[in-house]
Design brief:
Largest sheet: 12 strands, mixed
Strand content: 25-35%
Distance between the termini: 43 Å
Helix content: 25-40%
Oligomer: single chain
Structural class: alpha+beta
Number of helices: 8
Radius of gyration: 18 Å
Number of strands: 12
Shape: globular
Length: 265
């Protein structure tokens, strides 16, 4: 795609996906606004700060907004993620976050791709692997254990978080597992943004000894078909360095990058 196409897709992402707020809001989750910023608690193992734009805030006003979030989460003794995209303004926002005690984690590529060509491909996992849609807590616990093994950090909170989302609205999210016999070898879920042409892909992971066999791509194609069935025309995913080349070969375009800035009391 041309640079113009990438810019057009980025504008669609900004206008239709951001801010990334759960809808409907699961039980136990609180969504609050502080100026242009949306603050979410109770959704994950840490708080989440998101926005579409900071509405031109800069200098002392921006520092005050950041400081209020630090005070809020320090009072809860809870860490929080500020999701920063590379094209966010002002340009010195990363410096201001670091000065307030936020620490940058690994940068991911924000990828956008068309649903239609992916949905037309039959998801073909390797022999001995099947894809299955799941909603039960036992399956969600198995997926969380697999994600923990893949990423080397505790992801046990995922089971409860996904369970709450499914309970709030089973039509807003679909969780797909890849199994070889009784073993969970991969998984991913898709969220259907309300009032939008987008669906977003999350959690796409495959065990290290099962990679390079087509499982990840099959999970992408399967979820694309689900998005197509719901009338979505675009897919969005925050891609790790391992996932990015697979998605590029599948027709996705990088529209920006995103870096979690995390404050821990």
């Amino acid at each position: 795609m041309s640079d113009l196409d990438a810019m057009t897709l980025r504008a669609a992402y900004d206008n239709q996906v951001r801010p990334e707020v759960p809808d409907p809001v699961p039980a136990g989750v609180v969504v609050e606004r502080d100026g242009p910023l949306v603050r979410i608690t109770g959704l994950d193992d840490r708080g989440f700060l998101t926005y579409r734009t900071l509405d031109g805030l800069a200098g002392a006003e921006l520092d005050a907004l950041i400081a209020r979030q630090v005070d809020f989460f320090r009072g809860r003794d809870e860490s929080v993620e500020w999701k920063l995209n590379a094209h966010d303004e002002p340009a010195d926002l990363p410096d201001r976050l670091r000065a307030a005690g936020f620490v940058a984690e690994e940068t991911e590529a924000v990828m956008v791709g068309p649903v239609a060509p992916l949905a037309s491909a039959l998801p073909v996992p390797p022999d001995g692997v099947r894809l299955r849609e799941v909603t039960g807590r036992d399956d969600l616990e198995r997926i969380a254990a697999m994600e923990t093994a893949v990423w080397g950090s505790d992801r046990s909170h995922l089971a409860a978080a996904l369970d709450r989302e499914i309970a709030a609205d089973p039509q807003s999210i679909t969780v797909v597992v890849a199994e070889a016999g009784d073993e969970v070898v991969g998984a991913g879920w898709v969220r259907y943004a309300p009032n939008s042409g987008f669906a977003s892909l999350w959690g796409g992971s495959v065990l290290a000894d099962r990679r390079r066999r087509g499982i990840y791509r099959a999970l992408v194609d399967y979820r694309a078909r689900l998005a197509d069935q719901r009338g979505r025309t675009l897919l969005q995913v925050d891609a790790s360095p391992d996932s990015r080349p697979i998605l590029q070969r599948s027709g996705f375009v990088q529209v920006t990058s995103t870096t979690p800035y995390v404050y821990t009391p």
